[in-house]
Design brief:
The protein is of the alpha+beta class and 548 residues long. The chain contains 11 helices and 16 strands. A hairpin with an 8-residue loop joins strand 1 and strand 2. Helix 1 packs antiparallel against helix 6 and helix 8 packs across helix 9. The longest helix has 55 residues. The N and C termini lie far apart (95 Å).
Length: 548
Amino acid sequence: MEATKKKLQTSLLIAVEIFTIMLCVCLGLIGYQTYYNGMIQKYKDYEEAVLNLAANGVDWDQVEVSIVAGREDAAHKALSDRLDFVKSNTEIDWLYMIEPLNDNDKDNMKYICTGNTEADYARGMTNRLGDLSGTEFPAEVARQYLNFYKNSKPNEFWYYSNKTEWGSVFTTSIVIRNSIGNPLGVLSVDINMSDIDAMIRIYPLKLLFAGIVCAAFFIIILILWLNRRLIHPLKSLQNSAVDFVSKASGEDVDSLNFEDPKIKTQDEIQSLSNALVAMASDTKEYMQKLIHETAEREKISADLSVATQIQAAMLPRVEPDFSGHSEFELAASMDPAKEVGGDFYDFFFIDKDHLALVIADVSGKGVPAALFMAISKTVIKNRALFGSVPKPSEVLRDANNQLCEGNDANLFVTVWLGILDLNTGIVTASNAGHEYPAIRQPDGKFALLKDKRGLVLAGMEGMVYTDYEIKLEKGATLFIYTDGVPEATNAQNQLFEFERVEKALNVNAAAAPADLLKIVRGEVDKFVGEAPQFDDLTMLAIKFNGRN
């Protein structure tokens, strides 16, 4: 027990010291950052004012003539006098106008004019019109100048700090333009940042010393209090908790009890003790409930597994039901986002010459959508098989009215229904709020057919739907799908969208329907990556071969 006590004391002392030092460091960094940002803003404001002072009142169109001619005439002399005046009457270190030429390591700038004081002239620190910069500007800095010169907006300022042979320098620049907005050069002003550099060198040492002093002070104050008010009560709680955990590892939940350590400190430690006693009692009750609920969830999971199998069995199979039909090749797939879904597809013969194709998407997901899906599929198929070959619009109209009855859950379903005449290749179709179909004629590419959409089924009684025709030549392919394909979402919350659907279909546009579905699903999976499936994903493709 004594060894444990010393270990906890040591940990607390180290934690207090680290916390105190970190607090001092954080406060110091905040103060430093505030000071630094204030200084930088001060430099920005001051240098902007200097540039505006230098640029105002200059006839830049005349200066442009001087630059083009390459001669230091009266206009250039007026500019030079202006910059000399500003340089001599402000607290700046350099004022110059240059034209960026390239981003080479040498001679990447051409001087237009510089501002100089009398002392600068006496030391010969001047640059004349047309002088090249030599190695004064590094290639990276020249690249930034060139980009700013070409792409900046009028009156836009550019700021950067740079290490030079004269020390740290803060620079503000603006592109000078003539009266029609064409750039003439970059006017820049530099201020030496030696005061901030000096502060940066001294500040960490002051910060470290303050942290050590504060840490030592707080440790001396807290050491005695921690031992009496914290260590011993926590040790008692630890013993009770260890005993509780050892009992919890057994199978007898009824014998699980937490021994009350009887802490009477009248503070948060006592509140913690009381809370742990109550929590242990709640934990025991929770574990008893969990055993019961786990058994219930296993039963529900088994029921959902059976429901998944039932739903899959409701969908038609190409093999063996539709084998032996040389007039067409057909493939379909449905992958629900949950155990059961609301999407469905269907295909069935109305008579020996007409094949019905259905694809639909029920609003919502899970069990409610699956139940409405089963009802919708049955209603549509029964109506389509009633009497002679119907118009798809009539099937959707009657199915809509029937589905609206007793729809207290306000569910709805989007449907695309087409009836293919196997003799002519004509598909008579109608769309109830569903996705656009994609068509590929022989030797062509897939393209979306933006048909006329009616209102979804079960949305409102008495709706009227419109038929239209698609002519499938021999070798043409029709692709229909639900919104789970274009709305498949990746980890960056981006949608697959219709453009990628078309691109996926045209990876191998002449592929057989089964291979076509695999290609589209592969492209969707590649796009989505590790993101969870957001919606049911259903596709159907049919290739029309025609009758001999």
